[in-house]
From TrEMBL:
This is NAD(P)-dependent dehydrogenase (Short-subunit alcohol dehydrogenase family). InterPro entries: NAD(P)-bd_dom_sf (IPR036291), SDR_fam (IPR002347). Pfam families: adh_short (PF00106). Signal peptide: none annotated. It comes from the Bacteria. Gene3D superfamilies: NAD(P)-binding Rossmann-like Domain (3.40.50.720). It comes from Nonomuraea endophytica. NCBIfam families: PRK08303.1.
Length: 298
């Protein structure tokens, strides 16, 4: 039996990862702040119970646990429960975020709400460190473990682009560095740590923000061609499942990875059978000026 903890599994990338680990047969602890009885400050309807049910329906075992990953006692209790139940942890996915409503885009730091900015940083970085502090002693007990730090943007992209908010920029870049640092801590234990970014993600919130659905999103392509290279949360989920099951996963440790390039390496596809490669599209077409149809990157 393989055991995974997806911290921040309520929606979006975290939900996609949890479900695809379920499809690979994992028992997945699905954590987050929003349950059927209480919503987080994000005030969205998706719940950890729904995610856990998707994991089970996919073929795994989903276990929802309401956890605030800024609360050390709650995280400690979560890991103690996993240890008591299974005595092992094979995959840790740090996907806690929750900073969307706190970000002010194209606003200089001196005008950005400071409390919101600092809260964003805590949600994006402190949660990952706290969870790693308590979970990695269990994960590192045997070789082959995997830690995935979910971020937005590859190292190459983020090093060359300002992410339109100082706080967002720092948060998403710091998570990439966290994976690099964790890879050093875990190397002697034979466990890998990587940073992973999805591409242009058709999350629940993204579809809602643009007033489209999973059935109608192509209607937005004439307004923004990048939508043609967009992906479902399952795509990143399949990337994590492929990494987790790779006996040679140490070849990736410490690296900044993206779903599109991993699809090329492992041969998996998105739900529609395509392999969207948005970061290569951005580099070659949007930044590089190459004349190309977005469908060439799918």
């Amino acid at each position: 039996m393989n055991i995974a903890l997806v911290a921040g599994a309520t929606r979006g990338t975290g939900r996609g990862i949890a479900e695809q680990l379920g499809a690979a047969g994992y028992t997945v602890y699905c954590t987050g702040r929003t349950s059927g009885s209480r919503r987080s400050e994000m005030n969205r309807p998706e719940t950890i119970e729904e995610t856990a049910a998707l994991v089970t329906a996919a073929g795994g075992t989903g276990i929802p646990v309401q956890v605030d990953h800024l609360d050390q006692d709650q995280v400690k209790a979560l890991v103690e429960r996993i240890e008591a139940d299974h005595g092992q942890l094979d995959v840790l996915v740090n996907d806690v975020w929750g900073g969307d409503r706190l970000t002010e885009w194209n606003v200089p730091v001196w005008e950005h709400n400071l409390d919101n900015g600092l809260r964003l940083m805590r949600l994006a970085i402190d949660t990952h460190i706290i969870t790693s502090h308590y979970a990695l002693p269990l994960l590192s007990r045997k070789p082959g473990g995997l830690v995935v730090e979910v971020t937005d943007g590859t190292k190459t992209y983020n090093d060359g682009h300002y992410r339109l908010s100082l706080f967002y920029d720092q948060a998403k870049t710091a998570v990439i560095r966290l994976a690099y640092a964790l890879s050093h801590d875990l190397r002697e234990h034979g466990c890998a740590a990587v940073a992973l970014t999805p591409g242009f993600l058709r999350s629940e919130a993204m579809l809602e923000n643009f007033n489209v659905t999973e059935e109608t999103w192509r209607d937005y392509i004439p307004k923004n061609a990048t939508w043609a290279v967009s992906e479902t949360p399952a795509f990143a989920g399949r990337a994590v499942a492929a990494l987790a099951q790779d006996p040679d996963k140490m070849r990736w440790t410490g690296q900044s990875l993206d779903s599109g390039s991993l699809a090329q390496a492992y041969g998996f596809t998105d739900l529609d059978g395509s392999r969207p490669d948005v970061w290569r599209y951005i580099e070659e077409v949007e930044d590089g000026g190459k004349k190309a149809d977005p469908s060439e990157y799918r």
